[in-house]
Amino acid sequence: MSGFSKAVKSQQRLRLAIDGISGSGKTYTALAIATGMGESIAVIDSEHKSSELYADRFTFDVMGLESFQIEDYMAALDMAASAGYGTVIIDSTSHAWDALVERVERIAGQKYSGNTFRAWGEGTPLQRQLIEKLLSYPGHLIVTCRSKTEYSVERNDKGATTIKKVGTAAVQRQGFEYEFTMAMTMDSNHVGLVTKDRTGKFQDAFISKPGIDFGKQLIAWLHEGAIDWVQEAARLTKEAGYTAEQKSALWKSSGSNAEAYCKALETVIAERKAAQLD
Question: Tens digits of per-residue pLDDT, 48-62?
């Protein structure tokens, strides 16, 4: 145990969860926010690559998932990390949850005489693995979740009866949103309600069509504070594809200093990109 030290705000990576009913604008909102943040974007798409509908408005790469097991999502995240994408959007995590629920029900039937409580002893660790993989992604992360849909009967200002589609709860494990920096619920009018906010700037705010400008505000907050050079070193090492031997040699030549090591790696990566353009 190393004891206590003064707390220092370091630069952060975004962890944003967006839930909403069909048509509320989850995918578009995620892409717009990510674009405003200014990083390269990868979309892990379980919605039949519906994100490509917006390819004329935003620049991003996409991977369509055909299987929705936890392992498929984790493998896609590993590929995005290896490729060095600055922001990953998962659209949506609800398919992972639905697949896990079905998997647990099969396990219950095959091994525990239909006892799903015992079967979740195998399912819960898988969900935890996914959460850990999400939180440890070496870049910004935005995930979407479908919301369960219900209908309410209301009267408008003219006294006419209207039927309104509303969301009740995200299709994910209860408490899923607790793991994120920020959580937002979109309604049918494309207004986002910030239900959780560790930035302290947007809690309980209603944001109409959150998009590029909102992404710029988020990245400004995320970049406040000191750089965690050890964390940055891990990210750059992966982006550069360095072996353990290469990492060790560069670490020694950088005087075993994390900041100097990062600066050296940034130079290596920049030179590679310049060479690819030639």
Answer: 899 999 999 999 999
Q: Do 187 and 165 contact (CB within 8 A), yes or no? A: no
CB 90 within 8 A of CB 44: yes
> What value does the mean pLDDT of the chain take?
88
How many angstroms separate the CA atoms of 88 and 249, rounded?
A: 31
Beta carbons within 8 Å of 48's beta carbon, 6+ residues apart: 64
DSSP 166-179: EEEEESS-TTGGGG
Is 188:164 a contact under the CB 8 Å cutoff? yes
Q: Is the full-model pTM beyond 0.90?
A: no
Decide: 172 and 90 in contact? Cβ < 8 Å.
Answer: no
Residue of 136, 139, 132 whose CA lies nearest to 41:
139
CA atoms of 180 and 178, how far apart (whole Å): 6
Looking at residue 114, its pLDDT comes to 92
* Residue tagged 């619920």 (tokens): 185
pLDDT for 153: 53
Residue type, 259: E
Burial class (CB in 10 A: 0-12, 13-18, 19+), 142: buried
